[in-house]
Amino acid sequence: MPLSWRRPLFVLVFLLAILGLFYSVPYLPSAPDAHVAGDSDAATGRNLTSILLVSAFFPLSKSKHTIREYEWWLCLFLGPITTDIYFYTSVEMVPLVRKCRGNLPITIDTSFATPFDIPPLRDFREQYRGQIALDREKDLHQSEEIYAAWNAKPWFLDSAVTALARQGKMYQYAFWNDAGSFRISHGFSDWPSLGRVHEIWSEGSALSGQKQEDLLFYPVCRVPHPSYMHWQEPMGPVDGYFSEASFFGGPPKAISWWRETYYAYHDHYLRQGLFVGKDQNLIFALFLMFPSRIIGVWLDDPDAPAHKEMGPVVDEAHEGLLGTCGENWFYYQFWLAKLRDRVAMNEIWETAARWSWGGWRKRRECRLTRVVWVKDLLHRQFGNNWSPPVSSIGV
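and the corresponding structure tokens:
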């Protein structure tokens, strides 16, 4: 055989051998007790039971979305995510939850028919009806049930952690995740990544000087206007947007502190006849009073190094300041994922963008940004001399 043919033939045989080896390795799907390494997960040596996700679904008599929409979103959450889940729902919804979850680990709690049945809210149905008149967005909400669903989240999260701890199931971190927060097909499985969570709390502790066990996580959607530097506790919940409420959590100690603080101020402001129906308004006020305890992620942080590296946006229809990251509201999903899942999501977003006008243009991949500390964000807005308002309620 001529020498000129031998080298290409050798390369072809070598490539076929490599492919044969690759396809001979069996694919092992993530089992409930298996830990798939990714990012720094392998270095932790811990398994998936170190993170718990808590959620709930109670159909409302009046809702902005149909039951079919909720079923689709619910299955996008419960089906692919392999992390342990504790789920509150009514008895009639159990078949749907089981259908979506399949054989993956889940605890279904049907102790409550509605969010109004939980201990912190069971005496407030009538008062919540009166809250509708105080709601600037009453045309959208139209029912006291949505207020209860929002305000039940801190209790649901802490109660699930406590209930499982009594059974000997201890978790390093637990997070509330809205049942309808996954709205497109995605590449997340072992989510949130334990390795990413460890990195985030380590970074947050170094940034804030707080112990990791004392830090709570919330995504930030925007920072307050500088005029809010004059807000004080008696002014009540702040009618605006500082945080998202679809996902939050942290170590059990921080979760318990948040539950106690949240309902202490919920009841305090409700007794004064102030509007507490919208959880984000109360969260805003608590962020102003207790900023040292809160870490998060802010996609639109103008000072983030990840933004400055990007340069100008070339396709505003699909790209943001961190690349092609889907809806800004759910950036935390990508941010909390392991490397393998982030790669999968970038492929999904790039494929979706190709079908749009200008599909010939290659979009820039979504990238990670830094952890933010809420106290630092407020000092950036209000000045370094600003101090958090004094809290009169001991929690």
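(Above: one complete record from the training split.) Residues 1-48 have pLDDT under 50 and may be disordered.
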